[in-house]
Amino acid sequence: MKIWIKYLIGIALGVAAALILPFDDLRWSATLSFITEIIVRIGRYSLLPLLFFSGIMAAYRLKSDGFLLRTTFWTVGTIIATSLLLTTLGLISILAVNLPRIPIAIERVSELDSIGIQNLMRNVFPYSAFNSLTQDAFLLPAFVFALMIGFGCCIKHSNLKPLTSFFDAMSELFYNISSAMTELFSAGIVFVMCSWTIQFRDVIKSGVFTPLIIMLLVDFAILVGIVYPLILRFLCKNRRPFKILYASLVPFFISFFSGDTNLSLLSEMRMGKERLGIRQRTNGFSFPLFSIFARGGTSLIVIISFIMVWRSYSTLSIEFFDMLLISLTALVLSFILGNIPVGGTFTALTILCTLYGRGMETGYLLLKPAAVILGSFAALFDAASAMFGCYIIANKTKTIEAHRPKNF
Asked: Could you please report the per-residue DSSP string of 148-188?
């Protein structure tokens, strides 16, 4: 049975369980929350070892074969381009459609995650390189350590071939383990989906956020059904762009219903290799960088959310320069959310409201009931950018193998 069908079955079972079982009871709810947390932990279990050893081999092969500068250029450029594209899409959407106002309610301000640039830099370069392997949510420190080892293995006149063979074997080992985890998660998604459905039901019950959800669904359909296929047709001369969309179904399912950009990385790397034919050197280099930095989905959601909050508080239109400042701030924030794989969208909205001021400091509270759903959409947009973006990078760097249609 194809893996995406397994996930569809798991999703259907999760929805049915949420509608049938009495999760309004505190004991049932606590049990579901605990099981869901364990499932997500299991799903992430092999991520850091896979990223570390795959990153070593990717750096080693890119450096040895002379593809490093070209791959880095295309990866960085594509991350920036997709983030700008999603930012622009969000801005155009909210300006073109006047969504209903959100009723203003009094709610206590709660403490949220924050982004500290200095702490981020300290985490990237701890006192000991081995401490980077203890980071569970922030993948960049381990990835930087892996790149250093990979580049070190390229030094001439050094007897490191046995070591590179070991790293290659470990990369393959953890790839096999992560593939098994992806298969197992098709059963675990029943609990994740059940928990998500309960939260989604509470969000749409009032009808306040229904227009926003419809807008985001339309934006996603435009992005993956029109914009990205046209870009592929132009850049890669690809006459079958929808095969990337088909290969992305599992990453879409995982990212949307978990809202976890780290969790979806495992399936992105697997589908990129097995379905799209992206070779290891690009697979182990570009996908992690997309997961860490390419959070354009958050930028899109934050812009739409902020302008909705503005319109809920005021009947005045936003000045052009203010609109430009809001968009630029949301874009910059999207690049520094690597240490918040879950909930980063609402954190970015909180920071933007606080920085903007003018009575908007607590405006983010209007969207707090829908924070989980907004995070789900942000992760979904980011998964689409990762799959299409890495396919473009592999195509432009000639690190892709042609797969026959039967593989899809």
From this structure: HHHHHTT-TT---HHHHHHHHHHHHHHHHHHHHHHHHHHHH
